[in-house]
Amino acid sequence: MSAGAVSGLTELMQRYEAVIGLEVHGQLLTESKMFCGCSADYIGSPPNSNTCPVCLGMPGVLPVMNRKAIEYTVRTALALNCEIPEHSKFDRKNYFYPDLPKGYQISQYDMPMSEHGWLSFPVDGEEVRCGITRVHLEEDTGTLQHAGDILQQARSSVVDLNRAGVPLMEIVGEPDLRTPEQAREYLVRLRQILVYIGVNDGNLEQGSFRCDANISLRHRGSAELGVKVEIKNMNSFRAVQRALEYEIVRQGRLLDQGQAIAQETRGWVEAKGATISQRSKEYAHDYRYFPEPDLPPLQLTADFVERVRAGLPELPQQLVDRLQRDHGLSAYDAAVISAEIEDARAFEALVGAGVAAKSAANWLMGDVARLARETRLPLQRSGLGITGLAALIGLAERGRINGPTAKALLEELYVQGGDPVAVVEARGLGQVSDEAELSGIVDRVIADNPAAVSDFQGGKEQALQRLVGGVMKATRGRADARLVNQLLRERLGR
Ligand SMILES: [Zn+2]
After folding, report:
1. Residue 1 lies inside a defined structural domain of this protein
2. What's residue 473's pLDDT?
3. pLDDT tens digits along 247-285
4. Is the residue at 219 inside a domain?
5. If you write DSSP's letter for every residue of 391-444 in order, what string do you get?
6. What is the pLDDT of residues 345-359, one digit of tens each?
7. Cβ neighbours of residue 422 under 8 Å, at least 6 residues apart?
8. Scanning 38, 164, 185, 302, which has the fewest C-beta atoms within 10 Å of its C-beta?
9. Tally of structural domains, the chain
10. Within a domain: 3
11. How many other C-beta atoms lie within 10 A of the C-beta of residue 373?
């Protein structure tokens, strides 16, 4: 169980089994919206500027399907092992909400574009296989901005329809997940696949990848399903896991007291670390679905599907296998490097620039990963870039600069940029590995530090580092540390 789990969770999970299913909505990376020519890249435009009569839901306008969005949905469905029926259609899902200008959302009801897929992944050494009920296509809604906290003090809200009509894919998972960890890992893997195949940017914070969870509890050993609760408003993997843990405890305690679980939608409130009741759950018949009369039925020929299949990019697991096979990386390194596609591309570019695979992996997983996190700049967009890092690693590997100098240069050039070779040349940072030159300095440091010398000769191993430090200081950090250690030990007879 994860650290920070709600108290009582482990005990309750011994008696109750959680049945969890996830619904993921992912915005597609198309140029235009689903049914009009407005840009699908709506972030940053002034409110309501990225709109037209179609996505504003004006009377008399007609939607036109976005071909790319259909292709991306099929690509996703194939990557998730789904079947693609030849015939599908769009339907109107009718409901009123201020962010939905037409009073209905164009979605897919009983004939989705794909069904019967699956996703499998390891959790704690065990393979989990989660069914994918369907992947279908719909349109996103606008967004509301509340003046204040919607639950407590909001007095007014404004609507922005820039997002209305952006192609939105819904990926419905089967209730095959049994623990919050499995749910989290399912999302991590699903997001990774969508980013790899280029259909979604995987941004949970901005909501281009978002998740709702259904969870019910049943006594262990029982085959009957309990009453399910839907959880919304989780915008990080951690939030999903915490919200599910919270619900297991909340529902478990109610069941322990013999109380009924209400079928409802609850919202995760990050600041409280709790879910709160939002509304009673709607049923499909509340939406009065009917076939969208303004769009023709969708026919996807076997030919089209096979073309999309043939164009599927490499999937994460295929890349992990290839990194091990072609570059000799360990399974662990290959998994870390391929977790984010940008890292995987950086790795391959470094190897392409002549850096040894193991060395490229170590740099990327170590200091580069830390700097990317701290500066929020992936290597590709950093000042150093792939070419700069390859040059820097080259200098270090050939012994032109020592480890500490390489690290200091990485820190400095990562943001501000610069050619490492030129910087090393201009500042005279080249490693001192000339034995004759170092010998003189070593002798001087030994003569100047009798206390450290006697400590070391008396058996205190750490005292040697004080002497190494003295040599480093004298060479402005440029000495070849391995050679300095060797020379000191020779002189001091240990
Ligand atoms: Zn529009």
Report:
1. no
2. 87
3. 999 999 999 999 999 999 999 999 999 999 987 766 767
4. yes
5. HHHHHHHTTSS-HHHHHHHHHHHHHH---HHHHHHHHT---B--HHHHHHHHHH
6. 999 999 999 999 999
7. none
8. 302
9. 3
10. no
11. 10
Q: What tokens were used for 162?
A: 């820039």
| Same domain assignment for residues 162 and 251 | yes
**Residue 111 CA, ligand 1 centroid: distance in Å:** 26
Last residue in a domain, options 304, 337, 359 = 304
Query: What does the H/E/C string look like for 25-72?
Result: EEECCCCECCCCCCECCCCCCCCCCCCCCCCCCCCCCCCCCCHHHHHH
Query: 330 with 270, same domain?
Result: no
Whether 336 and 421 map to the same domain: the answer is yes
Q: How far is CA 469 from the centre of its chain?
A: 42
Q: Which residues surround ligand 1, an ion (CB under 5 A)?
A: 36, 38, 52, 54-55
Taking the C-alpha atoms of residue 226 and residue 242, their distance in angstroms, rounded to an integer, is: 20
> Cα–Cα distance between 98 and 100 in angstroms, integer?
5
- 144, amino acid identity: L
Instruction: Give the bridge partners for 330, in sequence order.
Output: none
The neighbouring-strand residues paired with 309 are none
The residue with greater pLDDT, 424 or 192, is: 192
Residue 290 φ/ψ region, left for φ over 0, alpha for ψ in the -120 to 50 degree band, beta for the rest: beta
| Dist. CA 305 → ligand 1 center (Å) | 28
**99 alpha carbon – ligand 1 mean position (Å):** 14
- Can you give the residue range of the structural domain that contains 333? 316-427
CATH number at residue 482: 1.10.10.410
Q: How many CA atoms lie within 13 A of 320 on its CB side?
A: 15
